[in-house]
């Protein structure tokens, strides 16, 4: 299928061509016609599948195809959970709407509100916003929803995880009852279905990937290591594999700051990005990382959904997340849009509960490898058998079919097989498992 077959306007097709795309991704091929039909849409897709364009393109088409009552009055609202994701969606609106006479704005907290107010007063058709800042602006009388036609909830499951449900409900009460609603989520977890029941009307359901599946293009490994030696092992991996761009996830903001400082002192250019950082600091760190001035970007889970970095080669879980779904979103930062990626997790003995939860969720055992000189004194226990729960838990999504095929190095560890135990020599040692080029 081509973009032309989806029924998009010539101006949008020109923008898509200029972006270098010729064929829609699976989520775009299904979501775009559904949105163009005017019906409510409930779509599930993992990060890196092109879902942002899956709602941006048809949203722009619908607004341009229908004459507004008043030019440049707010007609479409996109709600996102993080500043980074809001900026990413805003960039998508500008890129694909380059040849359309539509105006857009992006608003989020952590920066001065006055420039945002000034832009809103000049008139906009599309607003991308985080919930808190949107409510602030509405409270000051700077946002008028009276002519709103389309509402998009992007990363809806993440918004629930981050506690935005009350803000979302407050915003919904301010909107016109007659509107098109689009909800995009990584999963159709029970709490998402509960939310959609009160928002969407007879929605078209689009689900591309099995819930909570990791991309087949991402190879995954775990490195057992004592907790106190994780920082040294990370430095070893970065230096000996000559990684020039690596995204590292920690569990806490304090841990992210501490690790970035340790790496910096060791001569590895590093920066931390998390919720306590100012927007300016977060933007500088991300731009430095994209340009290659920052070699290691250390992030908390707030960045797991909002970072869009083209061809990111590897992700490292310095700490395993407490919520298994966050593992899927973390490693989804690499292997995007069909590209190959690698995900490494440094696992200590006290994280076996988190490891088992992740493997249960993705229905695969992740290959273990040991780095010479970093063998743990306290061994990480063997993997628990994989069993499918009869009822999804609070954070679990719908599962379809049997265990998913393991990606890359973990391909033979399905079902209840015991994991292969491979030893990774120090890079440069000449062994078949040395180095990071596979």
TrEMBL record:
<feature type="compositionally biased region" description="Gly residues">
    <location>
        <begin position="427"/>
        <end position="438"/>
    </location>
</feature>
<keyword id="KW-0963">Cytoplasm</keyword>
<dbReference type="InterPro" id="IPR044742">
    <property type="entry name" value="DEAD/DEAH_RhlB"/>
</dbReference>
<keyword id="KW-0378">Hydrolase</keyword>
<dbReference type="InterPro" id="IPR050079">
    <property type="entry name" value="DEAD_box_RNA_helicase"/>
</dbReference>
<dbReference type="InterPro" id="IPR028622">
    <property type="entry name" value="DEAD_helicase_RhlE"/>
</dbReference>
<feature type="domain" description="DEAD-box RNA helicase Q">
    <location>
        <begin position="1"/>
        <end position="29"/>
    </location>
</feature>
<dbReference type="Pfam" id="PF00271">
    <property type="entry name" value="Helicase_C"/>
</dbReference>
<dbReference type="GO" id="GO:0003724">
    <property type="term" value="F:RNA helicase activity"/>
</dbReference>
<feature type="short sequence motif" description="Q motif">
    <location>
        <begin position="1"/>
        <end position="29"/>
    </location>
</feature>
<dbReference type="GO" id="GO:0005829">
    <property type="term" value="C:cytosol"/>
</dbReference>
<dbReference type="GO" id="GO:0003676">
    <property type="term" value="F:nucleic acid binding"/>
</dbReference>
<comment type="function">
    <text>DEAD-box RNA helicase involved in ribosome assembly. Has RNA-dependent ATPase activity and unwinds double-stranded RNA.</text>
</comment>
<dbReference type="GO" id="GO:0016787">
    <property type="term" value="F:hydrolase activity"/>
</dbReference>
<dbReference type="InterPro" id="IPR011545">
    <property type="entry name" value="DEAD/DEAH_box_helicase_dom"/>
</dbReference>
<protein>
    <recommendedName>
        <fullName>ATP-dependent RNA helicase RhlE</fullName>
        <ecNumber>3.6.4.13</ecNumber>
    </recommendedName>
</protein>
<keyword id="KW-0347">Helicase</keyword>
<dbReference type="InterPro" id="IPR014001">
    <property type="entry name" value="Helicase_ATP-bd"/>
</dbReference>
<feature type="compositionally biased region" description="Basic residues">
    <location>
        <begin position="387"/>
        <end position="398"/>
    </location>
</feature>
<dbReference type="InterPro" id="IPR000629">
    <property type="entry name" value="RNA-helicase_DEAD-box_CS"/>
</dbReference>
<dbReference type="GO" id="GO:0042255">
    <property type="term" value="P:ribosome assembly"/>
</dbReference>
<keyword id="KW-0547">Nucleotide-binding</keyword>
<dbReference type="GO" id="GO:0005524">
    <property type="term" value="F:ATP binding"/>
</dbReference>
<dbReference type="GO" id="GO:0009266">
    <property type="term" value="P:response to temperature stimulus"/>
</dbReference>
<keyword id="KW-0067">ATP-binding</keyword>
<dbReference type="Pfam" id="PF00270">
    <property type="entry name" value="DEAD"/>
</dbReference>
<dbReference type="InterPro" id="IPR001650">
    <property type="entry name" value="Helicase_C-like"/>
</dbReference>
<comment type="similarity">
    <text>Belongs to the DEAD box helicase family. RhlE subfamily.</text>
</comment>
<dbReference type="InterPro" id="IPR014014">
    <property type="entry name" value="RNA_helicase_DEAD_Q_motif"/>
</dbReference>
<dbReference type="InterPro" id="IPR027417">
    <property type="entry name" value="P-loop_NTPase"/>
</dbReference>
<feature type="region of interest" description="Disordered">
    <location>
        <begin position="374"/>
        <end position="438"/>
    </location>
</feature>
<keyword id="KW-0690">Ribosome biogenesis</keyword>
<feature type="domain" description="Helicase ATP-binding">
    <location>
        <begin position="32"/>
        <end position="206"/>
    </location>
</feature>
<feature type="domain" description="Helicase C-terminal">
    <location>
        <begin position="217"/>
        <end position="382"/>
    </location>
</feature>
